[in-house]
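Progress against Task 2.4 (sequence-to-structure conversion) is shown through the following example record, which the project officer requested during the mid-term review.
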Amino acid sequence: MLERFRQFWTNVWAPLGNLLLRMGVSPNTVTVVGTLGVCAGALIFFPQGWLLAGVLVITAFVFSDMIDGYMARTSGQTSPFGAFLDSTLDRMEEGIVLTAVAAYFASRGMDFAVAATVVAVLASLMVSYTRARAEALGVACKVGIATRPVRVVILAIGLVFAKGAGLGDFELLAPAVYVLAALSVITVFQRIWHVRSELRRVTA
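Structure tokens generated for the chain above:
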């Protein structure tokens, strides 16, 4: 399902990707610009409480994550560094967006939600770290319930249906962050257990 969704939007944005390639724009440039746009959208709008505006700006730049991959494949510019850059900047985006959400909570005196957001940031980074460290040991580690697409969807739902976002009189942002933090922590332990089991099996 997720792959079909990504492929659909990749096809939609393919003409723009082709245009950028003809203009001499590299996939890595698109990756960097997309990250800057996402981070700026979050840091400018979220702390002010302009959640819907921030979501719209972020959404516009998030599609660059699909365009750069399409451009790299189409132009034959795929490279280990490109994959490394894309993955690294994805982590940066996630951390900065959650930091902006924490600033939103702090401006409203929601101390527990701020703390939960800090946990979500740390746990999300640990989810990525455990995979990278496991793969360095030769163990594939994509297990766990809170993979990056799941985390993105949970946070997006919370932002879109937050009070003041313009889509109904809901307040789902704080609950979404609580769920995100909890599932991310669980995923870290799932990956630790998985790596432990795999290493024991290999050395048995």
